Amino acid sequence: MAAKSAAPVLDWSWNHTPATSAALVAGGAYALAATGSVTGLPPTHALMVAGAGAAAQSVADLVQHRPAGHIVARCAAWLTAGGWTASALADHTPLTWGMTGWWAAGTVAGMTLARGLVQAEETARTERHERKLQKWANKQAGEWHDRLHRLFRLESHQVDGVRPWKGDVGYTVLVTMPSDTPELPADAVRKLAVDLRLPKGGGIQILDGETYGQTLIRVTAVDVLAQQIDLPDTPPDTTITNIYDGIPLGLQPDADEARIAVADECALVVGQTGSGKTNTVNVANAGALRTNNTVVMHIDVTGAGISLPWLHSWAVDGTAGVPLIDWTADTVEEAHILCDTVIAGIGARKTGHQDKLAEDDKLTVTHDLPEVLVVVDEIAELPPALLRKLDTIVNTGRAVRVRVLICGLRATQDVITAAMKKQSRVRVGMRVSDPEELSHLFPTGGARINPKSAPYKGCGFYSSPNADDVVSDPTAFKAYRITPKQIRALSVTYAERRPKLEDVFLDTEPGEYYASRWGRILPRLYKPAQLAPTTAPYTSDDTLYPPINPLTGIPITTATDPDDDNSPAPRTVAATTQEAARPGPAVGSDLLSTILSAARTTPAHAPAPTSTSGGGDDATVIRADFGRVIQQAGTPDDRPNPVPRLLAEAHQHVVAAGGRMWSSNLAAAHGLDPRAFGTELNRLLRDVGVERPGVGTVRIGDESKSGYLAETLAEAIQCYRNTQ
Question: Could you write out the DSSP letters of every residue in 539-586?
Fold first, then answer.
């Protein structure tokens, strides 16, 4: 990374205070008198300049409606400065102690006068604004008192105040209801909107006040949600923020900023295709990366789409010295390594930072001890084993400041696990077409949400704990718009403040794969010729690849594989002699019969094979149901493999294909009819209680079809082995 120049930079802007401006004018007068006395400048010239300045000042003050006393004071200051200059020119004495003393006294008086006049004008301006605002509020209060009486026949009610919102987009009315009518009727929203003749996009929201009997009526007069609101962060003004302040997402209908708290809570972001969910995730990335105490990691196995814009400045342009995203898991295997490292880091922080947990049961986030925020996109594409690891992070990482932001198309059980939903107190639902989805996402207050309140792209609803740790009701918002061009510009600024994970977090078994992560990832994301020299420090060392469990296809990042119980590997049941002698490969139903023939029920009249273990005539009798062993006798060494051959061979094909395979291709690899093959394989999975994630949909490239994951089949194989 190129060193940033520390040389002082001249500021040529005219950002002067009134006092410094008065001092500059006084300095100009002294310089004019000194040079004029040498060159013989007539004193009348100084008087002419002072008179012109006083006249111009008077015109400017009259245009700005300044008080008459202020106008006189400023004109007197101009004339005084001109009189001193004319006197110095006439006597040729600007450099004498007497004239210099008068000049210094006048300068101090002018600076004091300028400061006092400005403060007085600001006070007067504030008072005028408050009087104007109070006049408007009194008028609105009277109109609302009459409106409530006219529309709802209220008596003894009181309008306590009217407060305008920022940006003049609406206001809030505080009403104390009469004791016999504690709340407005159900159709009040519609009646008030019609009576106010609100424009399209405006609306009425009725809320409870701080005490019983108080009602807040929020009136939105301008449709903020219909506007495109660019992210206000630009490189010149992106001051360092703190993760404790939350992450800004956009604006609420009243133009207040919508923020989510992720220091203590996990977040759940859902939205249908085309709702602006990816843009909202990138806005959240921008908010987290603007801080200097947060490390951001990504899991996106569909091509690292949420990471590439943030990596471009470092990986391709070379304008950022470090990667903005600390780790990008673009494949299922890399996601396993990332999750294993994070889980081990959680345990290491709990034991390694005990001295920092003395005053509080949660770590305090700093630049040297940053929060870890794992952003997961397209969670429906992740296999069950990976979802379980994410559940572990969600359940155990709060005390040591490791949190997860989860993104999916829906908040249903087939996409989001129960732990993720229950532990995510921050909920964000982008534009949807079905109100039931919002009710499912927001169990509290979701039934009162109308999707038509946020109909535009980039709109949604959110709820997040406030400063008192109380989760607010779902509120509509419009997400900021962030473009790839803006992301690249911000990346250069944010790269300079990126924190690093401490040694305690990385001093674990899985942590040894952390240093070489980009050596594994970058060749998959970019061509070698594209990479900038700034990536060399991250790829110059040896690249470590963890061994892969041959059964599950999951990387092994520890000395012992938690998915291996040391049980014997699945064995393929040998075919009969007659089938072995059959010429050519079996196809279609013949192959399916071959697979099932190894576990046929032994006829009652047929003699059973003799067991060497002395188990009797029934020692090796096998009863099967269409390829699935349901009962068998004999010792474990005598028993055949309980895993159905169809399941075992399907797993081998899927592993060879890279861990995921469409149903049609898998059936073709077996030479079977796709419908018959899928029916039988799905039945084998159901028999041991294994379900395919994402309703059986598998994404390969940019296309999603019905298919199978290696981890799903491996889980079923393990279940069959455990039944032996």
Answer: HSSPPP---B-TTT--B--SSS-TT--SPPPP-PPPPPHHHHTSSS--
How many Cα neighbours within 13 Å face the side chain of 251?
21
Q: Which residues lie below 8 Å from residue 453, measured CB to CB, with a gap of 6+?
A: 203, 476
Report the 10 Å Cβ neighbour count for 689.
Answer: 9
At residue 112, does pLDDT exceed 90?
Answer: no
Distance CA 150, CA 143 (A): 10
| Structure tokens given for 542 | 């040896």
Report which of residues 453 and 491 the model is more confident about: 491
Measured distance CA(511)–CA(180) in Å, rounded:
67
CB atoms within 10 A of CB 230: 12
**Which residue type occupies 705?**
K
Q: What is the DSSP string of 438-462?
A: HHHH-TTTGGG--GGGS-STTEEEE
In the DSSP assignment, the letter for residue 388 is: H
Neighbouring residues of 69: CB distance < 8 A, sequence distance ≥ 6: none
In this predicted structure, the answer to whether residue 535 has a pLDDT above a threshold of 50 is yes
- Residue 661 DSSP class: E
- Tell me if 467 sits within 8 A of 263, measured CB to CB: no
Give the residue ranges of DSSP H helices in 581-691: 588-597, 645-656, 663-670, 674-687
Return the DSSP state at 606.
S
Torsion sign over Cα 183, 189, 190, 196:
positive
Contact 79, 54 (CB under 8 A): yes
Beta pairing, strands 294-299 & 267-270 = unpaired
User: Hey, which residues does 459 pair with through a beta bridge?
Assistant: 478
State residue 633 phi and psi, 5-degree precision: -115, 175
Least confident of 218-227, 344-353, 597-606: 597-606
DSSP 8-state symbol, 610 = P
Q: List C-alpha distances in Å: 523 to 69, 470, 535, 591.
A: 74, 46, 11, 41
How does strand 214-220 pair with strand 170-176?
antiparallel
DSSP string, 697-715: EEEETTEEEEEEEHHHHHH
Residue 220 φ/ψ, nearest 5 degrees: -100, 110
Nearest residue to 28 (alpha-carbon basis) of 84, 76, 75: 84
**Pair of tokens at residue 111:** 């600076």
pLDDT for the residue 639:
52
DSSP code for 473: P
User: What helix, strand, coil percent values describe the chain, rounded to 5?
Assistant: 45, 15, 40
Please list the residues that pair with 477 across neighbouring strands.
Answer: 460
- What CA–CA distances, in Å, run from 134 to 167, 325, 376, 460? 17, 50, 49, 34
Is 570:721 a contact under the CB 8 Å cutoff? yes
Q: What is the pLDDT of residues 394-425, one digit of tens each?
A: 999 999 999 999 998 877 766 778 888 888 89
Residue type, 493: T
- The answer to whether the CB of 392 falls within 8 A of the CB of 347 is no
Predicted pLDDT at 624: 42
Alpha carbon 690 to chain centroid, angstroms: 32
The tokens of 529 are what?
A: 């010729």
Query: Which 8-state DSSP code applies to residue 465?
Result: B
SS3 of residue 703 by DSSP: strand
Provide the phi-psi class of 705: left if phi over 0, else alpha when psi is between -120 and 50, else beta: beta
**Residue 168 structure tokens:** 């003049």
Distance CA 477, CA 227 (A): 11
Which phi and psi angles does 111 have, rounded to 5°? -65, -45
Contact 369, 360 (CB under 8 A): no
Cα 566-567-573 angle, rounded to 5 deg: 145
pTM of the predicted model as reported, rounded to 2 decimal places: 0.64
pLDDT at position 605 is: 38
